[in-house]
Write the structure tokens for this entry.
Amino acid sequence: MSGDRLSLLIIGGYGTFGGRLARLLGDEPRLRLLIAGRSLEKADDFVADLRAPKDGSEGLGSSNLGASLQAVRFDRDGDLSEQLTRLRPDLVVDASGPFQSFGEDPYKVVRACIGLGIDYADIADSTGFVAGIGGLDATARAKGIFALSGLSSLPALSFAALDLMAPQFSRIDAVAAGIAPSAHVKIGLNVVRAIASYAGKPVAVLHDGQPSSGLGLIEAMRVTVAPPGVVPLRSRKFLLVDAPDLALLPARFAGLQSSFTGVGTEPQALQRLLGLAARLVRLRLLPSLLPFAPLLQRASHGLAIGEHRGGMFVRVSGVDTGGKRLACGWHLIAEGDDGPFIPITGVAALVRRLLAGIRPEHGARPATGELQLADFEAEFRRFSIATGIRAESEGACLPLYRGVLGSAFERLPPAIAAMHSAGHAGGVRVASGRARIERGGGWLARIVARLIGFPPAGEDVPVTVRFAADGDKEIWTRDFGDKSFRSLQLEGKGRDRHLLAEVFGPFRVLVALVPEGSKLRLVVRGWRFCGLPLPLFLAPGGETYEEEREGRFHFHVEIGGRLTGLVVRYTGWLVVA
């Protein structure tokens, strides 16, 4: 360490990811952060903004309150030994990239660090770069330093999730992972160039246990990213991308049959155009998409529509320790601008471990297995990031709500959990109580209410609800006084996966189940009329939730829309008979 501070040189320190790493570590007083790049002016401007943000938030870099910050010029094509000797870092973090285009001597920074006895880490996502760093292992060991490559979402975080799920399996047959960036995140040009470099070109994967070639940005799989108890991302296709996991997985899981890594961008229309362009490369009508990288970046920025949320998944399937088929998926969702911090949380966790006196073993290698999932999740706590695991076991017959919620079912208050604990087939529960009913006065609201069979307005109306489990469905029969109406509830499939579907006559409403303290909120995510998708902004809305109050189950159901206004609102309580 340099004096009483760990000196950290961040190459690309004012870039997309290096800048976020500086922000994440900037409040750590035991650090000296060297914000490095080819432009000293840009580095100075970035450090000035860290110290006195333009948005008026609290600055970083005070000698008393945070890390020591210094802007420096660093040119990876210059005299590396001279620059590193002058700057005297304890750890070099390369956050620049794209690592796919580092030329004939891609490891020159790594070798310079090893030669001077400086520890090294990067957030590389290039398969060749990450997999090949082991060639420097003996030299790094001899120097007594570590050089870790790929300390990013793929492969470090994905392998940490795999390591947590793997003990449930006696055999792993398939592994898939994917990243779904928010449409509102400004993707850096280096990231776009990295993706464009292999669009329409062969990507090494496993098919049926044999090395094979997939087609970059052409082969696809559909996934719904859905941590238990969180509103899922919209179902989307993930297009095949070249990631280090594809080269590293066969050595980690002997007998692996299938591998896939993908990206699922929004809006999906833009991704379909990208897939079409990749097919033009495949047909040799275009030599490469690399020349179009700036145009693709501008298009992604110009078409920033939809939800400002991003996510990631890691899915494993195989045979469990009891000999049954098992599929597990680790899911992550990041809200707003928090998603782009995920790729650098591994480096942040490594730095905090170094500050605690915990060093990786000497040597040069991919960063898989260096950190546990708990190390990443400790960094996630600073952000609006939710994670969780979903498991699907062969022959498992779960009550409907437990199946949709997964492990989040355990977070339900006892009164709500009891109301949704019927068996998978043949189970019947009856609950009774009292309700207050309001009806909308608009002509369209009256038509909808009559079509579905909603009860008339009333105060202190006796209510009985019969829940009948029928296979993977539940039939809810609600009696309000002498008026009865019925709906069918079931778990969504395909595009509706991990959502609860409720059918009222010709309407199907898709909702996410979200535990929130003493409540279970039902958030509308889509709807259909006679099977035809309808615009979400016209979907029936209103505040709908179940709640436990003083040990009793309460309900608050509000149905309305932009066109109808309020259709019906009924509130009250129930007790299971």
Summary: Confidence is low (pLDDT under 50) at residues 59-64.
